[in-house]
Amino acid sequence: MRVLLVDDSGTVLGMMKALLEQMGHTVAVAKDGDAGLEVIADFEPDVVVCDLKMPRMNGLQVVRAVRDRSATLPVIIFTDEADVPRAVEAMKEGAYSYVVKGSPVERLAEEIEAAFAQKNRLERARALEREREKEKLRS
């Protein structure tokens, strides 16, 4: 699975990249939201894991920008803010989930797997819908 990590902390990026690669994922990193959006076009991630508080473009802005580009690419907010209203806001903006830094790494791994599964389901449903539309036009 291809995972894009977006975080302004080089320490977090290095640690999380190593952990996710040990789990068998291919990982790209970006130090801010703008760079993350640029990486998406070339790297074509299956899941984006993004910090909430970053300079220039915060995690919620990244979620909105990703939603504008792709309805199926899931974004997981990964932050040190254990703030329920902020988590609700992120979900309303379109984040797949909200994981607090310091949670067991298995929690993030489970969210990545679940987000990937949801992405696949959405893409299959869209493909089926396109096929149905083509069939209607042929009839």
Description:
This protein has 5 helices and 5 strands. It is an alpha/beta fold and about 140 residues long. It is about 55% helix and about 15% strand. Helix 3 (about 60-70) links the parallel strand 3 (about 45-50) and strand 4 (about 75-80). It has a 5-stranded parallel sheet, with helices on both faces.
Defining key terms:
139 residues, alpha/beta, 5-stranded parallel β-sheet, 5 helices, globular
Low-confidence stretches: none
> In DSSP terms, counting alpha (H) and pi (I) runs of 4 or more, how many helices?
5
CATH topology grouping? Rossmann fold
What is the count of distinct domains?
Answer: 1
Q: Note the run of SSEs as H and E.
A: EHEHEHEHEH
Q: End-to-end span in angstroms? A: 39 Å
Helix content bin:
55-70%
The CATH superfamily label reads Response regulator
Q: How many strands appear in the DSSP assignment?
A: 5
Radius of gyration: 16 Å
State which percent range the strand residues make up: 15-25%
Order of strands across the widest beta sheet? 2-1-3-4-5
- Tell me the CATH architecture: 3-Layer(aba) Sandwich
Broad shape = globular
